[in-house]
Specification:
Protein name: NAD(P)-binding protein
Keywords: NADP, Oxidoreductase
Number of helices: 10
Organism: Dendrothele bispora (strain CBS 962.96)
Structural class: alpha/beta
Strand content: 15-25%
Radius of gyration: 24 Å
InterPro entries: NAD(P)-bd_dom_sf (IPR036291), NmrA-like (IPR008030), NmrA/Isoflavone_reductase-like (IPR051609)
GO molecular function: oxidoreductase activity
Largest sheet: 7 strands, mixed
Oligomer: single chain
Length: 367
């Protein structure tokens, strides 16, 4: 199968899509003959000449082109004009819009002879493994269509393959509320909200007892993994990737350790009150108190059993996202987010950031 050279990212103006565009442009700047064109499809009307710029190469950019996700011809005309060979979807939205938009995007791609690769909007835990969070079911129809197309095309002269990119939970959510001058960059292009551990407020809303393993990857590394995956000779149906695998209790321990600093104080009469501390050691020498402590961010966890998660759910949700937050916790407790492989870690040269490195960068003490 030919490698990808001309790539369209649907929904690439924000969120993980933006990181994928940047990852592709970064690879293009290093290897101009590998990727020759990157375009961004957007449902929003855009000013002519709008583009996403490469963070590392200011002269390199991806034009943003407005399309109608209810019209096959609107999309196919753009794909055909730019001779696109690979379509990567990062679309988001409520099921009634998301499902038909992805199907329209696929039909448009199939109508363009140059297109031979398609990646649906996955970019999280494996939607086919998750039973406890119904919202993930909106990702299933496109996978059924893709498998049917692959079988149909296998005996034709028009090759076709697809992959679903599975990355676990975005590590960037651990950066919510970062107080550093550049702290907003900890989130990347993702929306600002805490997930499980809210370091800025010193709390953790924990699925289960905190000992379930969670697969984390930064959105920036997802962009790099996807970019390098476009240069593989063949696409597996599932392209898993991971930056780190840790439990919530391990994250809490790392936060408290990394955000701390050593305190040494001497008092002749008494020890005054201190902020929350741990690892304290007190020695008395000639009636002098030598106080040695390691003070840092203290995280107060709230552990949730399945029964407690169900009790917190709204029986009559008014939003289309419903109880997704709590249902996603259930899927963790029930082991539905386990990634058994890390395909792209093995097939690409990406060296992803670990949770400890991420916490050290954004929550560690500055020198």
């Amino acid at each position: 199968m030919p490698k990808s050279q001309k790539i369209a990212v649907a929904g690439g103006t924000g969120g993980v899509g933006n990181h994928i565009v940047e990852g592709l442009l970064e690879l293009q700047s290093r290897s101009p003959t590998s990727i020759t064109k990157v375009i961004v499809l957007s449902r929003s009307s855009t000013t002519k000449g709008s583009y996403i710029q490469s963070p590392s190469s200011p002269d390199l950019h991806a034009p943003i082109i407005s399309v109608d996700y209810t019209s096959v011809s609107s999309i196919s005309n753009v794909l055909s004009e730019h001779q696109i060979d690979t379509v990567i979807s990062t679309l988001v939205g409520e099921p009634s819009q998301f499902i038909p938009a992805q199907e329209t995007l696929l039909q448009a791609a199939l109508s363009v002879p140059t297109v031979h690769r398609f990646a649906p909007s996955e970019f999280g835990s494996d939607s086919e493994q998750i039973e406890s969070a119904p919202l993930y079911k909106m990702k299933l129809p496109i996978l059924k269509s893709l498998r049917e197309v692959k079988v149909r095309r296998s005996s034709s002269l028009l090759p076709f393959e697809f992959t679903k990119f599975v990355c676990g939970i975005f590590m960037n959510h651990l950066g919510f509320g970062n107080p550093k001058p550049n702290g907003s960059q900890a989130l990347g292009h993702l929306r600002s909200f805490p997930y499980i551990v809210d370091i800025s407020n010193g709390t953790a809303d924990v699925p289960g007892d905190g000992n379930d393993k969670i697969w984390y990857t930064t959105a920036e590394d997802v962009g790099r993994f996807v970019a390098e995956a476009t240069q593989l000779d063949e696409w597996p149906e599932e392209s898993t990737m991971v930056g780190d695998v840790v439990t919530t209790n391990q994250v809490i321990e790392m936060v408290e350790r990394i955000s701390g600093e050593l305190c040494i104080a001497v008092f002749r009469t008494h020890i005054p009150p201190f902020p929350p501390i741990f690892c304290a050691h007190i020695r008395v020498i000639d009636d002098v108190f030598l106080f040695i402590a390691f003070s840092g961010k203290k995280i107060t966890p709230r552990y949730n059993t399945e029964a407690q998660l169900f009790a917190r759910m709204d029986p009559n949700p008014t939003s289309w996202t419903g109880n997704h937050y709590l249902e996603s916790f259930l899927s963790i407790v029930r082991g539905e987010r386990v990634q058994k492989t890390s395909v792209l870690n093995e097939l690409t040269s990406v060296k992803p950031m670990t949770v400890e490195d991420y916490l050290q960068k954004w929550w560690g003490k500055d020198d």
